[in-house]
Amino acid sequence: MKGQEWYQENDVANAYDDKRFSGGGRFIDRREKAAVLDALAPVEDKRILEVACGTGRFTVMLADRGANIVGMDISEAMLEQGRRKARAAGVAETLSFMQADAGRLPFPDDHFDTVFAMRFFHLAPDPEGFIEEMCRVSKSQVFFDTFNRYSTRSIYNWALPMGSRLYSGREARELIVGSGLELADVAHDFVLPYGFYRAIPDWIARPFRAADRALGRTPIGDHLASVSYWDTRIRE
Question: Which of 28, 25, 75, 69 is nearest to 46 (CA)?
């Protein structure tokens, strides 16, 4: 997987949340969690798999809301951060973390109600193969996000240490249709790229985020968005 060695470094895992979701990065965290909850709700008693769960931001949140959830990642260092979060939140006994390869999910067909992945497909060298595995183990729903090719994300993409794959809207839709999925809903956001928000304090980020949302609600907002959230269903 692209950037796999970088992603699994202990120092990357230890600093992952602080570097991305402190200061102005809090706006990213809130929006991503809202996108997951909007798409997956209601989650109580739902059997869910999070692919590439990282430090467990979403896994722990959904377990706290009653989901029967497994968080899976290739990085043991990231998973250990997730276990610490689960203990701190009091949900360590109600969820599972496991190390596995997203290209060969260790579950039988139709095992979960929902399978989702956030911050994953920009690292995937074989997106078709990965999403086919997600479809295989899901009974109904597959949810994921993409970073968009024709957006401000492309300005700094070349400098990222792990690299990043960007998708056009056409490419993402072809990925969905080619995997036997039907698009239920899609949302677009963040005209300004994530890297901008991570680089500034919360109080500076707040007015920029308000302007970002306002521009996103205009007719050109979807075309400028750097992130898309794709909510799909297994085709009957």
Answer: 69
How many folded domains does the chain comprise? 1
Compute CA distances 128 → 93, 181, 198, whole Å: 34, 12, 30
Query: Of the candidates 17, 58, 54, 25, which has an alpha carbon nearest to the alpha carbon of residue 41?
Result: 58
CA dihedral 88, 90, 95, 99 (to 10 degrees): 20
Contacting residues for 131 by C-beta, under 8 A, at least 6 apart: 121, 142, 144, 175, 176, 179, 181
Of 8, 30, 2, 152, the closest CA to residue 76 belongs to 8
Q: Is the pLDDT of residue 6 over 50?
A: no
φ, ψ for residue 205 (rounded to 5)? -65, -30
C-beta of residue 54 within 8 angstroms of C-beta of residue 60 = no
CA neighbours closer than 13 Å in the CB half-sphere of residue 196: 16
Q: How confident is the model at residue 17 (pLDDT cuts 50, 70, 90)?
A: confident
Is there a contact between 71 and 53 (Cβ–Cβ < 8 Å)?
A: yes
Tell whether the model's pLDDT for residue 200 goes beyond 90: yes
Segments forming the whole domain that contains residue 78: 4-234
Half-sphere exposure at residue 61, Cβ-oriented, CA atoms within 13 angstroms: 17
Q: Tell me, what CATH number does 217's domain have?
A: 3.40.50.150
pTM beyond 0.90, yes or no:
yes
> Peptide bond before 161: cis, by omega within 30 degrees of 0?
no
Question: What SS3 state is found at 130?
Answer: helix
